[in-house]
Amino acid sequence: MAGSTRSGGLSIFTAIAFAVGNMVGAGVFVLSGLIVHVAGPSAVLSYLFCGILVTFSGLSYSALASVYPEDGGGYLFSRRMLGPLPGFIAGWAMYISLTIASAFVLLGFGIYANLLLNSSYDPRYFALVGLVLLSILNMRGVSEAGKLETGLVVSKVIILLAFIVAGFIHISASDFTPFLTAGAGGMLKGMTMVFFAYIGFQVVALMGGEIKESSRNVPLATLAAIGIVAFIYIGVIIGLLSADLPVYGEESVFDAALVLFGSIGATVVALGAVFSTLSSANANIIGASRITMEMACEKQIPGRFARLSHGQPKNSILFGTLLAGVLIIYGDLAFVVNLTNVTTLVTMALVNASAFLLVRKEHLVPPEKSYFRIPLGVFIPALGGISCIAMLATLDLRIVVLGCIVLVTGMFLYYIEDTPEGEVIRSEIREKLRRRRNST
User: Fold this and answer.
1) What are the φ and ψ backbone dihedral angles of 240, each rounded to 5 degrees?
2) What residue spans define the domains of the chain?
3) Residue 208: predicted pLDDT
4) pLDDT class for 433, splitting at 50, 70, 90?
5) Looking at the domain 12-439, which fold is it?
6) Is this structure's pTM higher than 0.90?
7) Peptide bond before 178: cis, by omega within 30 degrees of 0?
């Protein structure tokens, strides 16, 4: 069973750190204040209920990752279970969602860079500078600095835990009244926005081929990461409410830290947010590059789209940089979050459909193969798929249509004929992926 029993590779703790690090970025430092603005104290339920819904999909990812313990995540699962075209759609949707998410995270970087420097520049300037620097670093292969991810995650989690503890100390019952300030509709709207904050759990399955004992550790790391992040997000909401700010928005975590800890504490939080958002954006760029390399290797996109430079898919990174740059310049935070949600929900719906088929065809899995069996049979992937479709239905129709146009436009790459040069590049990609897997 490839990737399931090797002694080398990433440990379960490192896998959890990557997932938590990917989820705990702009989603907590920027999005949490926006959710409180929309839902009031019921933002606690927005995060809790969304975490439960995401867990259904997390179980589907876990089962599939234990059967197919290689790199690729949702792309690999959909291609193996549903066929080449659904696999392409899932892979392209993952690439686009990671790229769009980078735009949101870097806007968060721009907001907190201003707060840290006590400046008033347009956050988009900082965001664009960060985008260009990260893109250059990735094209030069410096993305391997991701080995420091565990240390970065521990640092920002410690900062957030201090914020959460202060929140629990200062919170009172009056901070939760009225609870449904915008009614149940506000809480549900908060849920649709919150979904963005959890999508990073997919990074565990995406790196499945590099995690040791992956058939056991991928499911454990996925579920542990979702649980840890849900606790952190709900704790941060309590911290925000305890500060009793006059208005909540994208800078609220900094403002609440100023109330709870004073100027020094707020500066530490801003510094943590700057490093956190840069780290998260870099993880998204790395993830997007992995997807295109896997798709090129499987002849799902032309090899030249993933042309390697310093071991990185240069053209893929350049295209992602251009798309993220356009969104940073022209898209506001809510627009970017919702567009990310559209593309991610499409991938997750396809993965849940794949898990549904896996459960129905379990008799085809070799009996000697050890893998994670989803509790309650097809019920869990069915709930996961239905929840994805339901959340898509709550989004603005124009955003859903735009997201679908972006996905359909990618079909051009699926049907375009490759060139002899592309085949050479594909061979280089296969060799690189082979060396990477052998090294772990």
Assistant:
1) -65, -45
2) 12-439
3) 64
4) low
5) Amino acid/polyamine transporter I (1.20.1740)
6) no
7) yes
